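User: Predict the structure for this protein chain, please.
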Amino acid sequence: MLINNILHCPVTEISGVWRFERKAGRRAVASSTPGHLLHCIVKGSTSMITNRRSYDIASCSVIYYHEQEEVRNHYPEDTVFYSVAFSAPDLPPLPLSRRVFNVEDDVADIFSKIYEIYTAKSPNFNLRLFLLLLKLLSRLGFTESNLPLYTPHEKLWYQIESWIRQKRKFRAGIQDICDEFNISPATLHRVCRDVSEKSTGKRIQQMRMEEAKALLMFSGLNVSETAQYLGYPRIHEFSREFSAYFKQTPSSFKDF
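Assistant: Here is the predicted structure, written as structure tokens:
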């Protein structure tokens, strides 16, 4: 008997699980990890600005990010939260209107259990982690019957960003993108500005630099290999742009 419908798991990789503690009064500016990222605040609170939206987030809340979004946080009190980063290329990002969830205590317990299993590295921990993450996503509403709705500009720009990441087109020119998606430069710039509030060149540079930082810190690639991965013909060109962008050399992140 032939099976016509082949099923696959939407989550392809769990790239990190962390527990963070932030002291009262701390302020921070950061970018979320590549792929999908979930935070669960289990103690305290935070005031956050991301994607031109402001949030006041209390304990027992889950926050969702997608693909290196800039985040500005202020912690008015001592705060503890868990983070789970994962790759799911076929899972569309949630729209901006559905990024923060108020959750029950058992959802926070799932985050705690994921962290416990991830750090202990006990037998069969990979399978247990994936099972718990899928359970968590289901509880948060990542189901086929509850897929996010996008504006036409959001849908197009997410397709463009996915193409850049999947095909490693981090140094693609404007005309390359326009040819791929059969749009004019004016349309490309308008869509990018509407969705990211950045020019096309600035947004692609941000994607390229954040990808570089993530590769240096987590992938095991050295500076030369990272430059090659991102399509730079010369390592010096990569190092110069990276240093100007982050005010630190690539090697300083490699040694982080």
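The chain has nine helices and nine strands.
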